[in-house]
């Protein structure tokens, strides 16, 4: 009997007035704010990083000094549609997928290599 009166009271309160619509919108507002914050802190930076990686892979040329995703340092000696051949030692060359190129080696990397 008590459950029926509670349900009836809730149904009467949600009778379609403007305040119930306003409260429904307010209850969804925190979820919308969380999504906006999540977008700017997680999704957008990932998209930017992916775009930069794609541009890097498309701009590769022979002679570029690169680091692979697995940490192998090498110099690009040949470029295929989906593969890259890297010279990793005087007589050692490996062929890897183009997607595995993580970054170009910069001046700081060269200085660190000479020091060790």
Please provide a brief summary of the model.
With 116 residues, this protein is of the alpha+beta class.
Main attributes of the structure:
elongated, five-stranded antiparallel beta sheet, 116 residues, alpha+beta, 2 domains, SH3 type barrels, 3 helices, single chain
What is the topology?
Layout: H1 2-13, H2 18-58, E1 65-68, E2 73-79, E3 83-87, E4 93-97, E5 101-104, H3 107-115
Antiparallel strand pairs: 1-2, 1-5, 2-3, 3-4
SSE order = HHEEEEEH
Biggest sheet, in brief?
5 strands, antiparallel
Measure the end-to-end span: 82 Å
Number of helical segments with 4 or more residues: 3
Class from secondary-structure proportions? alpha+beta
What is the CATH architecture descriptor of the largest domain?
Roll
In which range does the helix fraction lie? 40-55%
As laid out across the biggest beta sheet, the strand order is 4-3-2-1-5
Segments where pLDDT lies below 50 for 5+ residues?
A: none
């Amino acid at each position: 009997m008590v459950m029926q009166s509670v349900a009836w009271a809730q149904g009467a309160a949600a009778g379609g007035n403007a305040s119930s619509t306003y409260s429904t919108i307010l209850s969804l507002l925190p979820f919308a704010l969380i999504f906006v914050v999540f977008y700017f802190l997680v999704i957008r930076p990932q998209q930017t990083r992916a775009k930069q990686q794609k541009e890097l892979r498309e701009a590769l040329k022979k002679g570029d000094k690169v680091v692979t995703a697995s940490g192998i340092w090498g110099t690009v000696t040949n470029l295929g549609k989906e593969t890259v051949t890297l010279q990793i030692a005087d007589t050692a060359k490996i062929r890897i997928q183009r997607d595995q190129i993580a970054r170009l080696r910069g001046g700081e990397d060269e200085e660190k290599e000479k020091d060790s």
